[in-house]
């Protein structure tokens, strides 16, 4: 498996994997996926024989990204690396792809340096994602309720930045 920065020719594959992760990943169009890619500090995928197995997209604070979850973190933290979405193709789940992606994100955050933040659905529930994030050093720092949706706001402190 190789990890590399996503390029414009990866948009269709990334979007398809994003669709496989619904509702946990949040639905977007291919055009929105491409625009999001242009805003990212980290936009990488794990590949095997040129096939994308999974990807992660992360943003720094204060971009024009209009996500309410992202805005929640912007209101509370001046520095962070926001994981907007991490997704693994259905046929490649439970093979360590997500862990490879988060290893990359956490190492990048150490270089900035900045904590890593993300949200996980509580309603509808996503217990697998909660366990995944906790296993990778995230803890819940809040809950954000919106209409029919509720999310756990998660933070990975990146050693030495937040006690």
Topology:
Blueprint: E1 2-5, H1 11-20, H2 30-39, E2 42-48, E3 51-59, H3 68-76, E4 81-88, H4 97-111, E5 116-123, H5 127-135, E6 139-146, E7 149-156
Parallel strand pairs: 4-5
Antiparallel strand pairs: 1-2, 2-3, 3-4, 5-7, 6-7
Helix pairs in contact: 1-2
- Average pLDDT level: 93
Name of the top-level CATH class: Alpha Beta
**What do we call the CATH homologous superfamily?**
Gcn5-related N-acetyltransferase (GNAT)
Largest sheet: 7 strands, mixed
Query: Helix fraction?
Result: 25-40%
Trace the largest sheet across and list its strands: 1-2-3-4-5-7-6
Point out poorly predicted stretches: none
Task: State the CATH topology.
Answer: Aminopeptidase
Q: Provide the domain count.
A: 1
Structural class by sheet pairing and helices: alpha+beta
Roughly what fraction of the amino acids lie in strands?
25-35%
Q: Architecture, according to CATH?
A: 3-Layer(aba) Sandwich
Distance between the termini: 34 Å
Can you offer a commentary on this structure?
This protein is α+β, with helices and mostly antiparallel strands and 163 residues long. The chain has a single domain, classed as Aminopeptidase, CATH 3.40.630. The protein is built from five helices and seven strands. The protein has helices at residues 11-20, 30-39, 68-76, 97-111, 127-135; strands spanning 2-5, 42-48, 51-59, 81-88, 116-123, 139-146, 149-156. It has a seven-stranded mixed sheet, sandwiched between helices. Helix 1 (11-20) packs across helix 2 (30-39). The protein is globular. The mean pLDDT is 93.
């Amino acid at each position: 498996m190789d990890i590399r920065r996503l390029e414009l020719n990866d948009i269709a594959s990334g979007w398809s994997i994003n669709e496989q992760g619904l509702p946990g990943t949040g639905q977007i169009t291919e055009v929105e996926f491409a625009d999001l890619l242009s805003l990212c500090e980290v936009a990488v995928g794990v590949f095997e024989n040129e096939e994308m197995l999974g990807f992660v997209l992360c943003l720094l604070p204060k971009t024009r990204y209009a996500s309410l979850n992202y805005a929640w973190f912007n209101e509370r933290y001046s520095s962070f690396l926001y994981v907007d979405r991490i997704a693994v193709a259905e046929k490649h789940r439970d093979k360590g792809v997500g862990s490879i992606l988060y290893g990359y994100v956490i190492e990048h955050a150490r270089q900035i340096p900045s904590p890593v933040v993300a949200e996980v659905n509580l309603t509808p529930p996503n217990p697998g994602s909660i366990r995944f994030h906790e296993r990778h050093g995230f803890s819940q720092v809040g809950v954000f309720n919106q209409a029919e949706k509720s999310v756990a706001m998660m933070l990975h402190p990146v050693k030495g930045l937040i006690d």
